[in-house]
Amino acid sequence: MSDGATQPVEVDARVEDAASGGALLELRDLRVDFRTAGGRVRAVDRLSYSVASGRTLAVIGESGSGKTVSSRAVMGLLPPTATVSGSIRFDGRELVGLSDRQMRRLRGAGVAMVFQDPSRSLNPTMRVGAQVIEAVRTHLDLDRGAARKRAVELLALVRLPLPEQRYHEYPHQLSGGMRQRVVIAIALASKPKLLIADEATTALDVTTQAQIMELLRDLQRQLGMALIMISHDLGLAASFADEVVVMYAGRAVEQAPTGKLFAHVRMPYTQALLEAIPRVERPPHARLPVVPGRPPDLAALPPGCPFEPRCPNRRDLCRESDPPFAEGEPGHRWACWFPCASEASP
Amino acid sequence: MLVPVRERGEPLSTNGDEPLLQARNVVQEFVVRGRGGVKGGVVQAVSDVSIDVRAGETLGIVGETGSGKSTLARSLLQAPRPKSGSVTLRGTELVGLRGKALLEARRSMQMVFQDPFGSLDPKWQVRDIVEEPLVAYGVGSRDERRARVREVLDRVGLDADVFARRRPRQLSGGQAQRVAIARALTLDPALIVCDEAVSSLDVLIQAQVLNLFEQLRDELGLSYLFIAHDLALVKQVSDRVAVMYLGKLAEIGPAEALYRQPMHPYTVALLASIPSPDPNAPKGKAEAAISGDPPSPIDPPSGCRFRTRCPRAQERCAVEEPPLRELGTDHAVACHFPVGSSDRIPAIAGAR
Amino acid sequence: MGAQLPEAEPHVATSALTLAPAAGEPIERRRGWLRSLDVVVPGAVLAFLLFLFFIWPLIGPVGRPTGGNILNANIEPWSSGHILGTDPVGNDIWSRILYGGRSSIEIALTVQLIGLVLGGSVGAFAGYWGGALDLVLMRVLDVLIAFPALVIALAIAQSLGPSEFHTILALSFFSVPAFARISRAATLRLRERTFILASRLSGTSSPRVLLRHVAPNILPQLVTFGLLGMGVIIILEGALSFFGLGIPPPDPSWGNMIFDGQGILSAEPRLVLVPSVFLFVTVLSFNLLGDALRSRWSAL
Question: Computed over its alpha carbons, how large is the radius of gyration of chain A?
Answer without folding.
Answer: 21
